Amino acid sequence: MSKKFDYDVLYIGAGHATFDGGAPLAETGVSVGVIESGLVGGTCPNRGCNAKITIDEPVKMTREAQRMNGILKGDLKIDWTKNIEHKQEIIDVLPQGLTDRLENAGATIIHGHAQFKDNHTVIVDGKTEVTAEKIVIATGLRPHRLDIPGTELAHDSEDFLNLKTLPEKITIVGSGYIGMEFATIANEAGADITVMLHSDKVLRKFYQPYVEKVVNDLKERGVKFIENSNVQAFTKTDSGYQITYGDNQTLDTDWILDATGRIPNLDELGLDKVGVKFDKTGVFVNDHLQTNVDNIYAAGDVVSNDLPKVTPAAYFESKYLMKLFSGQTTDAIKYPVIPSVVFTSPRIAQAGISVDEAEKKGYEISTNDLANYWYYQVDKEPIAESKQIHDKDGHLIGVTEVSDQAQDAVNALLPAIEFKFDRKQISRLIGIFPTIGYAAWHRA
Ligand SMILES: Cc1cc2nc3c(=O)[nH]c(=O)nc-3n(C[C@H](O)[C@H](O)[C@H](O)COP(=O)(O)OP(=O)(O)OC[C@H]3O[C@@H](n4cnc5c(N)ncnc54)[C@H](O)[C@@H]3O)c2cc1C
Ligand SMILES: NC(=O)c1ccc[n+]([C@@H]2O[C@H](COP(=O)([O-])OP(=O)(O)OC[C@H]3O[C@@H](n4cnc5c(N)ncnc54)[C@H](O)[C@@H]3O)[C@@H](O)[C@H]2O)c1
Q1: 16 CA closest ligand 1 atom index
Q2: Is the CB of 13 under 6 A from ligand 1?
Q3: How far is CA 401 from CA 79, 121, 208, 221, in A?
Q4: Ligand nearest to the CA of 350
Q5: Does one domain contain both 268 and 158?
Q6: Which domain holds residue 200?
Q7: Using the chain's own numbering, where are the disulfide bonds (predicted)?
């Protein structure tokens, strides 16, 4: 590539959309720069997946222990402060590890906020100009905040993950991934939780009968759900906060989590200076992840598309750009099936054709009552069911499961869905028994 510029490829942002491909790209001899305004690693390691799953672990274990009551003796309780400390120990080392990964590969990390000057030049912190042949926008998402009076009194998911003590009464606005995962965690840790819905639907992207099972379980555990809440204002009171909602109703609470979605980090990037097209859903790209400006690309959460905004999708795009920039491919990006999971207890996981779509298209849908299958009974799982979808030739084309280990069951079936295995091919496989993966294959 050209030596007219400081770097061959310059990434803005140091999350999964950058480092998973940026480090191996640097190893091929391409000169790589990375500009990051916050922690190297971005959302997933520092304030997303890794942090969340660490504080969820005792939640999952406590739930299991409750079911084993009588076999296991004693009452297990979560020490919130220690749980958060443990999370911090796990994630504290990640930015340095990822910095080492990039730097050992030959990439240069520049700390600061990037803004475009022209299509080959970025200004860092308003001072230093950095130039590159190609630039990748990988700036991710940030929390959306409700546009209502008192919005500054609410907190976001990062604040929740850093709570040193657990407030007694938490109100969560939004019932998507973050709202439901954090409601599950805080409820099990002992907080009094209210979830305020925008409509009457929770986790609208998941199979609703399974969502209902999770919601009913949380209701039995004391979580309150307010449908069509129409939240209007947050105010400070002597003892905490008050939420005005609905038809001038009020709710007193100790802590408010605004979990109403995430929006692209684009507004202070200077995209207008270079004419890159975008809207509130993200940056527009073609099937090579290239924007309308030839040398500017985008990857990860910040891209405008219908894919789940999850780490494995950012990883896949980052790897694709590595192959494109190092000359290993000129092909368009071809996404494999992208699974998704919500880490409630139990989890709901899905991949491929959804049950709703299968019903519309008349595919074969089989229902598996896993709660009555011996291996799920080992854990005494009360809520466990899956649906597998086959096309007319017997290929597995979709699965959705609600259970404690739904993510592993779905992961185990991914090759069958991606490579369109039929029942005959699946019957050739001998798995390890007894395992969740085997239980899933056994039904495919
Ligand atoms: C609470 C939470 C839980 C999650 N749990 C899961 C999960 O369990 N599984 C899963 O697969 N996904 C999960 N996700 C989603 C996952 O974190 C994202 O899909 C993933 O991090 C996207 O990576 P990215 O590189 O596109 O963006 P990010 O990781 O957000 O990285 C973007 C980086 O760009 C930087 N940046 C932004 N603007 C600029 C600028 N102008 N100059 C310099 N730097 C800039 C930011 O500081 C950030 O570090 C979760 C997200 C959240 C918030
Ligand atoms: N397990 C995972 O993979 C995982 C976990 C957490 C987050 N994430 C990622 O982070 C993204 C953001 O998560 P999220 O939960 O913030 O977003 P989301 O889009 O999943 O949910 C947002 C929720 O806010 C509600 N809402 C919007 N406006 C509202 C209003 N005015 N009043 C009340 N409710 C309102 C929506 O109806 C929805 O229920 C997700 O899209 C996901 O990609 C993934």
Answers
A1: 25
A2: yes
A3: 30, 48, 12, 22
A4: 2
A5: no
A6: 151-260
A7: 44-49
